Amino acid sequence: MLRWAMLAGALTLAGCGFPNTVLDEGRVREATEAHFGSPLAPIDVGPVVISGDHAIADWTQGDFGGRALFERGAYGWGLLLCSGDSIRRADNLARAGVPDFNARWIADQLAKAESQLPPARLARMKRFTGTAADHEAYLKTLGDQ
């Protein structure tokens, strides 16, 4: 009996260092909804791609959309920047601070996931032009147009 208890304890502790991608995906979705969602304008989030401490979440809201780059920190997943198609490239992810391996993996997996999306949804995400590190300031500039 003691042997089983020790084995169970060792397995429990061994799993502590591994991220739970299902849990992380849910948290990235929640963070995306918190930043872009509104009771007046529902948001559709996904796909979400995670590698290491970085994630990209595609999102659409009405006729608009984009991609959000998140970084896992001490307090959970924080928004680094928002972009359109440009953040899909590994070199741009690396420029934003994502380690090279993770940047390449995210770019590859995002391309695969997005190949399954309807063209109309991809077109809505393409409408996000440029890159906004401060999403609140970016939204204010939209009112000026």
Helices, by number, come to 6
Per DSSP E runs of 2 or more residues, the count of β-strands stands at 5
**Helical content class:** 40-55%
Q: Strands of the largest sheet, in order across it?
A: 1-2-3-4-5
Structural class: alpha+beta
Question: What is the residue-averaged pLDDT?
Answer: 82
Which runs of at least 5 residues are low in confidence (pLDDT < 50)? 5-18
Radius of gyration: 18 Å
What is the straight-line distance between the termini?
71 Å
Q: Tell me the major beta sheet.
A: 5 strands, antiparallel
Tell me the overall shape.
globular
> Helix-strand pattern, N to C?
HHEEEEHHHEH
In terms of DSSP E residues, the strand content is: 15-25%
Features:
5-stranded antiparallel β-sheet; 6 helices
Write a structural description.
The protein contains six helices and five strands. About 10% of the residues have low confidence. A hairpin with a 2-residue loop joins strand 2 and strand 3. The chain is an alpha+beta fold.
Summarize the structure.
The protein has 145 residues and is of the alpha+beta class. It is built from 6 helices and 5 strands, in the order H-H-E-E-E-E-H-H-H-E-H. Strands 1-2-3-4-5 form a 5-stranded antiparallel β-sheet, with helices on both faces.
Give the arrangement of secondary structure elements.
Elements: H1 2-14, H2 21-36, E1 44-51, E2 54-61, E3 64-73, E4 76-83, H3 90-95, H4 100-114, H5 119-126, E5 131-132, H6 135-142
